[in-house]
Structure to design on (258 residues):
């Protein structure tokens, strides 16, 4: 990790998004051995809930043993197989056997949905999560993840499209689990020549793990480096954004009183 890039973005973030929380990051690789590992859960636990500690500044390693949710094991690349009843679980269920979440109309739609997916080669590897300001020279972040309210998201979304003529070329919003929107899809985009950012955290099952009115915005590192380079020549230096900065401040004050 280029620590000058780290410090440059931190400075720019504080200038244009003053007071807003820094993003978190992850890289995939061997266990560094110097960072605490997420405990093995005794009961089912959503991975997104564990990220709260990272957002507050706790570095954390997550591996297959840290995950009690079969969905997160699938999205993080530790398994390529869905459990047999998943097609019913995501749709209307199976009377007397499986209670359905009703996120898809039919089991057949669920079957077809998975034909669009690839696979993260994570077997035997770990995910090292750090907040942006904790990154050091030996880190290799692959995705940068923001948790933000609409006014901040408007800035991130617009910046992600700053160098794009294609209206669909800067940001995507694929259906999937909360962990899929911040890990699987942006990591897949990172493997492309022209990666896109991913707007997410619409999964109702993951929503209890994030604050009110907050969504996620996950950016592949290759794209994020370009976005940092554009900040000082973009709309962020205009009077239009000065008005938005005041709204961001008001939004933060309202949120702190909620």
């Amino acid at each position: 990790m280029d620590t000058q890039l780290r410090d440059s973005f931190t400075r720019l973030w504080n200038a244009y998004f003053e007071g807003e929380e820094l993003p978190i990051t992850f890289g995939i690789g061997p266990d560094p051995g110097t960072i605490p590992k997420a405990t093995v859960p005794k009961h089912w636990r959503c991975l997104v809930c564990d990220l709260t500690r990272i957002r507050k500044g706790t570095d954390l390693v997550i591996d297959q043993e840290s995950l009690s949710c079969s969905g997160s094991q699938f999205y993080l690349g530790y398994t390529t197989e869905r459990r047999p009843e998943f097609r019913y679980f995501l749709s209307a269920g199976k009377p007397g056997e499986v209670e359905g979440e009703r996120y898809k109309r039919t089991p057949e739609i669920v079957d077809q949905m998975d034909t669009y997916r690839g696979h993260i080669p994570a077997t035997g590897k770990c995910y090292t999560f750090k907040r942006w300001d904790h990154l050091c020279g030996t880190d290799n972040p692959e995705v940068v993840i923001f948790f933000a309210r609409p006014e901040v998201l408007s800035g991130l979304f617009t910046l992600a499209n700053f160098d794009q003529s294609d209206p669909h070329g800067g940001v995507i919003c694929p259906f999937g689990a909360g962990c899929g929107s911040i890990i699987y899809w942006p990591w897949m985009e990172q493997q492309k020549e022209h990666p896109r950012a991913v707007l997410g955290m619409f999964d109702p099952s993951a929503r209890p793990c994030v604050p009110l009115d907050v969504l996620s915005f996950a950016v592949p590192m290759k794209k994020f480096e370009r976005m940092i380079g554009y900040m000082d020549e973009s709309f962020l230096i205009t009077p239009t954004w000065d008005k938005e900065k005041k709204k961001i401040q008001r939004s933060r004050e309202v949120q702190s009183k909620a």
In short: The chain has one domain: 3-80+119-257. The chain has a mean pLDDT of 95. The CA atoms of residues 49 and 210 lie 7 Å apart.
